[in-house]
Amino acid sequence: MWPTRSNRFCPGTSWRSPKPFRSDARFDSNASVGNAADEPTTSTGESRVRQRLGGSRRRRQTTWHCRLRRGSRNGFVFRRRDRADVADQRLAGAGGDVGVLLRRTRLESPSRIPAVRAVFGAVGPGGLAVDAVGFDQRILVSTTRRRIRASRYRSGVMQLYLIRHAESQNNARPTYLRVEDPEITPVGRLQAQHLADWLATLKIDAMITSPFLRTLQTALPILTATQVNLDVWHHVFERGGCFRGHDETNFAGAMGMGRAHILRLLAEFERRCRLEASIDDSGWWGGRDRETDQEAEQRAKRICDRLLSTFQNGEVVVLLIHADFKRLMLTEMIGETIDVTGLGPMRNAGITKLNRIDERWQLDYFNSVTHLPAKLITGNEH
To answer: Could you name the Gene Ontology cellular component terms for this entry (predicted)?
Structure first.
């Protein structure tokens, strides 16, 4: 009856052991069993479980097991063993709707954090619908660790997301056809929408962008998907500033968008957008010559210092910027330990996350594009 072949979905089985599959995990929880009315926040599924098991207030020590059995409707059999001598109930997976049951567990943390468990719809004796707690300890551990990390970050660790803008016309065309302030392409609009959908899952405290058209257009879907405010900082523009031309022989400074132009672009979200006073109607760049590399490095250092002075209470900050300036900021933040120049191209809408821990920046992940379909991954840097 029991499978003996190794199966990547069932790591407890083996070639030589015909013993029943039993997960390595045993989830023990000291859960008070009582009436659902005693705890208003209890879910409907948990209430049904409590009503079925009885209304006593004694504490039960419960261990959930899972094993694989051929012939069952969804392959899994759940057995609840109760140390309080409550009769065992064998819950066969019914393959019905998947629910979510929140239970509280003791963590290796000063506080108790509710962890989301994988829950499978099951049917108990007499066809009564019961929620059975999930089977894989790895799910519990990984979920719990993420909750602990999130709690720690919110208690004073700044989280910074450095995100390159979506694909622009300059990224999609040859270098000699570049213009001073291009808009994003149709591919870029799709990238921006996928980015917005991903950022909507975060609790963002601040979003900052440059005054370039491509970063502002990247920010629009994010403003639609979230309630975050947008700050347009004057000095987070791309290295070199706003200029036309493709080599040193034909570089020429451009004006850049003026304040009124930017406000028209953001008119739908005007109450949630703030522009720095230094951006006026004459254009944020003002036709100056191209910025030198040394000036760009000094500017990156000033922006890093400004972030630290502005956000000091564990905020989650999103910074929509450009490939070269993102590389300059990473060099300033983690350049002593990592050679940023050897990390490869910065992908459009690629996400790099850093945490400010113990007075220093720590790289969490670099250039992530897992929120994008494969066909939308681009990364030309011109």
So the answer is: cytoplasm
C-beta separation of 236 from 321 below 8 A: yes
DSSP state of 8: T
* Cα separation, 207 vs 347, whole angstroms: 19
Instruction: Determine phi and psi for 277, rounding to 5 degrees.
Output: -65, -25
Give the residue from 244, 286, 279, 245 showing the smallest Cα distance to 265: 279
For 304, the token pair is: 């890093």
Residue 6 lies in a domain: no
Do residue 161 and residue 129 come from a single domain? Answer: no
Q: In the chain, what percentage of residues exceed pLDDT 90? A: 53
Distance of CA 220 to the CA centre of its chain: 19
* ∠ CA 99-31-27, rounded to 5°: 65
User: The domain spanning residue 189 has which CATH number?
Assistant: 3.40.50.1240
What DSSP letter does each residue of 9-36 carry, written as one string? TBTT--SS--SPP--S--EEEEEE---G
- DSSP of 223-238: HHHS---EEE-TT-PP
**Under a CB-based contact definition with an 8 Å cutoff, are residues 21 and 10 in contact?**
yes
DSSP string across 104-124: ----SSSS---EEEEEEEEE-
Give the distance between the most distant pair of CA atoms in the chain: 86
Cβ neighbours for 154, distance < 8 A, ≥ 6 positions apart: 314
pTM score of the predicted model: 0.63
What pLDDT digit, counting tens, does each position of 94-113 carry?
Answer: 333 333 333 333 333 333 33
Q: What is the pLDDT of residues 107-133, one digit of tens each?
A: 333 333 333 333 333 333 333 333 333
Domain containing 124 equals 27-144
To the nearest 5 percent, what fractions of the chain are helix, strand and coil?
30, 25, 45
- CA of 212: how far to CAs of 68, 190, 205, 255, 295, in Å? 57, 19, 22, 11, 19
Same domain, 163 and 231: yes
Q: What is the CB-side half-sphere exposure of residue 243 using CA atoms within 13 A?
A: 19
Identify the DSSP state of 213: H
